[in-house]
Amino acid sequence: MILAAGRGERMRPLTDHKPKPLLPVLGKPLIAWHIERLAAAGIHDLVINHAHLGQQIEDALGDGSAWGVSIRYSAEGEGRALETGGGIFRALPLLGDGPFLVINADVWSDIDLVQLDLPSGALANLIMVDNPPHHPEGDFRLAGGLLHAEGLPRLTFSGIGGYSPALFAGCDARPFPLAPLLRAAMQDSRVSGEHHRGRWMDIGTPQRMAELERGLVRHGR
User: Fold this and answer.
1) Rounded to the nearest 5 degrees, what angle is found at the Cα of 12, between the Cα atoms of 6 and 16?
2) What are the strands, taking DSSP E only, across 120-205?
3) Residues 119, 192: contact at Cβ < 8 Å?
4) Residue 123 burial (CB < 10 Å; 0-12/13-18/19+)?
C-alpha cells in the first residue's frame, strides 16, 4: 500500500492544484519512483489511498499496467483524509488477510524492498533510519531487534514498514493515527525493527525535494 492521501501543507503552493505524490522529481512523479521499485522487487499488487485531488492520482496512474503492476484505489474523499491508521484500516479489504507492506508516498529511499519481511509473531516491522536534522529527537528505540516507545537513543521511522491485519483488530472506520496502535503493540514486544543505514529522505518541503533531485543526479539516480 502506498499512502498518498496527505494534503501536503508544507509543499504549498505546489500542492494547491496537484497532489503531492504527483509532484515531479527529475521529471517523474514522486509516486512513480515507488511503483518502479515495488515492481522491481516483485510486488505487483498495489493499493493506493487518496483524498486531496485524488482523482488526479487515478487519472495519472490508471490501473498500473504501464509499470507492469495492478493498482486498486482506496478513495477517502476530498478533504476527508483518515490519517495513517484510518487510511490503512479502510483499505484492509483490498489488502487481503496476510501481511502487507506500506510506504509513505512522500519519502524516498534505497531500502531493499525484496528483503523486507514480517517476523513470526510480530504485528509490525518498521524500517528505522538515523534522525534527520528536522526530526532530531527520533521516534522509537531499537534494541535486540524490537522497537520500544521509551528510552534512548531513538531512531526515526522511515515511513516504510510491514504490518499484520491483526494490528488493526478492534478499530473502526474513522480517522485515527497509527502511532498509538504501534506503541500498544510495542508494550507486548510485538513490533520488530530494522536500522537502514543507506539513503533516505522525507520529501516534506520544496527545499528537500530540490535536495533529493541534486542527490539523485550526483549518484546517477
Assistant:
1) 75
2) 124-129, 141-143, 146-148, 156-163, 191-195, 200-202
3) yes
4) buried
**How far, in Å, CA of 49 to CA of 37, rounded?**
18
Q: What pLDDT, in 10s, does the model give residues 19-76?
A: 889 988 888 999 999 999 999 999 999 999 999 888 999 999 999 999 999 999 999 9
Ordered domains of the chain (ranges, CATH) = 2-218 (3.90.550.10)
The answer to whether 81 touches 36, Cβ cutoff 8 Å, is no
Q: Which residues contact residue 32 at a Cβ distance below 8 angstroms, ignoring those fewer than 6 apart?
A: 61, 67
Regions of the chain with pLDDT less than 70: 8, 79-80, 220-221
Distances (CA, A) of 97 to 91, 93, 116, 126: 12, 8, 18, 19
CA count, 13 A, side-chain hemisphere, 159? 19
